[in-house]
Amino acid sequence: MTATLPEPSATLTTPVVEVNDLNVTFSSKRGRVTALDGINLSVGQGEFLSIAGPSGCGKSTLLKVVAGLTRASSGSVHLRGSSVSGPRRDIGYVFQRAALLEWRNVRGNILLQAEMRGMDKAKAARRADELIEMTGLTGFEQSLPHELSGGMQQRVSLCRALLHEPDVLLMDEPFGALDALTRERMNIELHRIWRETGTTVILVTHSVAEAVYLANRVVVMSPRPGRIMEVLDVPLGKDRNYGTTMEDPVFTQISSRVRDLLGATHAGD
Amino acid sequence: MSALDNVRRPAGEARSGRRPKAHEDLTAPTAAKPARASKWLAELWRPLVFVIILLAAWWLVTNQGWVAPFILPSPQDTWTTAVEHAAYLGQHTWITTVETVLGFLIAVVIGELVAVLMIYSKSIEKTAYPLILFAQVIPKIAIAPLFVVWLGFGMEPKVVVAVLMAFFPIVISGMAGLKSVDPEILELTSTMGANPFKTFLKVRLPASLPQLLSGLKVAATLAVTGAVVGEFVGANEGLGYVILQANGNIDTAMLFAALIIMSAMGVLLFAIIQVAEWFLIPWHASRRSTGSSAAGA
What angle do CA A179, A180, A185 make, to 5 degrees? Predict the structure, then answer.
């Protein structure tokens, strides 16, 4: 595709996700807390958007608002042009913990998505097979979650989120609990899966390398209240080799800019 | 293998002797079957030895004449009495068994239903919870006579007391189980557009089983107590009645026979639920024989 032009699809077609003047405040015992303040964001078809920020910047809240799991205090969120007012069915969600059902094997956990939605059984089974193969879970279909490593559990969670071919895949720190090596491998696989499926992805992460390697655009947020500091384009093409990308000057330049921005948010602490 | 090797291994690995790989785990259930009998023996030999020691001590104390027979009958006397009156004991055991099982089953149905209602409705929980607690703290033996007045001398008051005894642990464990569901899984199912009934059936109920089954074990033993308490305050049949009769006749051998049968009944009910646990929640951590295993990513 047109890798040289930044975010061409986002400007030309209707965005998959559109966030306008979003504010979210929570009332707690100590008073009102502003989690998100004046967020404007639009994510195009097939785009990979990373949101990086320190803890407490409301990036997870932003994902939950897009999914309809948390209410906006003011402003609007549109998914495929329709306003988000409750839990949305047209999304896939991956949490930091795999959140699998202990009593179901790998296949059963993936197919939970189909059973809950009442999808066509044969179609869902075929799709599950494809995803199991794509994520390298072949041979583990009958394993129970406790028999799998953290990385493999997260693959199952990813398959479950992709089963119904959602308009947008929302990932909240999906690899945050994995060791560095597994995390790297999962990044490479996620990049490949994103290319193969063409799904729109919003990824929330603490890791600068992860954010930049995977994304078309990186949103950097500041905490208390959660605001967007800067949005950076990542013109690294669509097919990225992990090793060479890490050493690409464009990659290092963007990464250090993100790091500087994140460092600035810590200076005030 | 040297001792040093063992030291270097991680704790989980040392316990199981080897690290099971994921593909080995797949075949584990079939491989485990022939070993079941010896596993049972390994589980049971300790309590068996303990019971034998107790019996020996009982035999010694009574046969040496250290304790008068009307205070503590000898094991032989108890056995002979039980065999001589097998039909009589059997008939009354049957009555108490029916009362107990009936009371337990009613308590399971009502208890789980109340737990579900309280989980799904805050106002029901706030209304019912204090009442249930209040009902629990009333000594059952104190209100048992009331049930005799209301329901007569038949089985009904005994079943009611058994229900009351078994109800509380079922409600509490049922609620705790239903609340133990991972909130993130519930958020996920809400994005799957599932109706609440489906979510209950496929997610909440299975997740609640480990805690619910623990409650059922407690409830089963309490149901036996409930039935016997009911019999104490007014009955002409059942093991409680047998004990009262034997007590009146200072027939301690009969009393002991009835007591042992009663305890065996509680243990049997407990064991049935334990077996149900093996079939219902083989996936649960408490049921895994070896430590955690992990496949490479």
Answer: 100
Who among B182, B198, B296 is closest to A149 (CB)?
Answer: B296
| CATH classification code of A9-90+205-267 | 3.40.50.300
In this prediction the ipTM stands at: 0.82
Spell out the domain ranges in chain B: 105-287
Residues 6+ apart with CB under 8 A from B262: B96, B224, B228, B239
Gap between the Cα atoms of A94 and A71, Å rounded: 19
Domains of chain A by residue range: 9-90+205-267
CB-CB under 8 Å, B194 with A99: no
Q: What is the CATH number of domain B105-287?
A: 1.10.3720.10
Structure-token match 């409750």, residue found? A86
Q: Are A34 and A25 in contact (CB under 8 A)?
A: yes
Q: What is the mean pLDDT of each run of 10 residues along chain B (297 residues)?
A: 39 39 43 66 88 93 88 92 94 96 96 94 90 88 89 91 94 94 90 87 93 94 93 90 93 94 92 90 71 42
With CA atoms as reference, the chain A residue closest to B185 would be A99
Q: pLDDT tens digits for A69-128?
A: 998 899 999 998 888 888 888 899 999 889 999 999 999 999 999 999 888 999 999 999
Cross-chain Cβ contact A116/B185 below 8 Å: no
User: Which residue of chain B comes nearest to A184, CA vs CA?
Assistant: B297
Cβ–Cβ gap B206/A69 under 8 Å: no
